[in-house]
Structure formats: C-alpha cells, structure tokens
Amino acid sequence: MNGGLTSSTPQRRYGPRLDSLNASQIDAIRRIPPHDKAQTDAIFARRPASIFLDEAYFRTEQEKIFRNKAVVLAPSAALPEPGSVLAHDGYGVPVLLARDRDGTVRAFLNACTHKGAQLVEGCAAQKAGSVTCPYHAWTFGLDGRLQGVPREETYERFSKADRPLTQLPCHEAGGLIWVNLNPKADNDFSIIPDQISQDMTHLNLPTAHLYGYRRFPLKANWKLIME
Questions:
Q1: Phi then psi dihedrals of residue 205, to 5 deg
Q2: What whole-number distance in Å separates Cα of residue 77 and Cα of residue 204?
Q3: How far apart are CA 78 and CA 209, in angstroms?
Q4: What is the pLDDT of residues 61-76, one digit of tens each?
Q5: CB 73 within 8 A of CB 177
Q6: 82-141 tens-digit pLDDT
Q7: pLDDT score at 2
Q8: Model confidence at 52, in pLDDT bands (50, 70, 90)?
C-alpha cells in the first residue's frame, strides 16, 4: 500500500532554508563533497539468486526481521483524528490500528477473540468509537477491551476482561507509526534513532495530510521491490 502525503505547512518558493533544518540535516548537507571531488568506492559482491527465490530463506527473513523488529505500518496522517481505525495487512499479518479519544495510537491483531473473524476491512481509515465483529457482534473499544457481548449470560464463567484484543507493541514517532508484529515482543523501540524522528519532524511529516493511497499486489520478493 502506497500513500500520498501533502504537508499542511506552506512550502517556500525557493526551497528550505538552513533555519528550517535541524543540526543533523545541516551537518549531512555540509558533508556532501563537490561533484568533482566526490569519490565512490567500487563494490565487488556477488550473491546467489536463491536469496530471492528460496522459500525457506524467505521464511527465515519473516521470522528474524519482519516478525521480530519494529516496522513502519503507516504515516500518522493515516489516522488523522481521535476515533480513527485502519486495517493493514501489508506484511502478511492482519493488523488493526486505532487512535483512541486521547490521540494515542494502538495496534492489535485484526481478529475477534471469539472466532477470529476480521473486525475491520479495507485500507481506508474509518471513524469509529468502537469496532464490532460482523460474525457474532462482539464489540471492542479502541483500547482493545471487550465492551459488549450479545447474550453474555449464555456463557458459563465468562468475563469480558479475559477476552481483549491481542495487542501489538506500537510506537508513534516522527509522523510514522511503528509496530512490532510479534505480540510477545517487548515494547522496546530503542532501535529507532532519535535522529530519524527529528528529521521526519523537520520535514513536516507529523503535520502532513494523507490525500490517497494505492495498493499494488505484486508477485515478487520484497528485496526486488526495494531495488
């Protein structure tokens, strides 16, 4: 899924000035050598084609990288207001993103804790104070707590407190929503450098507006897409 972003801050006619950049951005610009003095080290490296084709290699990547490290699921602009929910399955895991009434973003498995039915469909944000399963109408708050169950009295020794949505570690920084797709992972996002958040903030990403998205189903390894 690809989103289009526009900044809510008026753009300068001749581009950004130094006083609009942070220290790391200014330092990076000043370290760029003149074109006639730039030197590029030659690279000699070969890798087998199997890293793009081997299913076992791909499963290892999923386990070690995409199911074990924080990944970006969406820009903050995808959930523009409190009471917004969004479904995301771009990494092969059904995720439900929700911004509660206090503005905090949370991530859950997009699966009802009754029969596992998908709670929210589609890639567009929706306004909702809660989400209701289309299968048996279990209703969950945007904090993941189970709020309502039809005919709750028919369940013996049943407690709504025991059936919240499965929460995923989630962190919002620099206008991006980061999620660890492993629900058992620690809520540790120290892997995200402060510089990234600062740079994105100075690029006005947290105040951007999402004007649309496109989805491209491609039969290709993720590394080919990156290249």
A1: -65, -40
A2: 11
A3: 8
A4: 999 989 988 999 999 9
A5: yes
A6: 999 999 998 889 999 999 999 999 999 999 999 999 999 887 888 988 999 999 999 999
A7: 45
A8: very high
Q: Which run of H or of E encompasses 24? A: helix 23-30
Measured CA to CA, the distance from residue 56 to residue 191 in angstroms comes to: 26
DSSP line for 133-198: -TTT--EEETTS-EEE-TTGGGSTT--GGG----EE-EEEETTEEEE-S-TTS-S--TTS-HHHHH
User: From residue 226, how far is each of 52, 105, 190, 222 by CA, in Å?
Assistant: 12, 27, 24, 6
Tokens at 130, concatenated: 């809660």
**Alpha-carbon span 23 to 72, nearest angstrom:** 24
Torsion of CA 172, 200, 78, 15, to 10 degrees: 160
Q: Taking 90 as the threshold, does the pLDDT of residue 220 lie above it?
A: no
DSSP label of 14: T
40, 47 Cβ separation under 8 angstroms: no
Q: What's the mean pLDDT when you consider all of the chain? A: 86
Sole residue written with tokens 């200014």:
26
- Look up tokens 């919240």; give the residue: 164
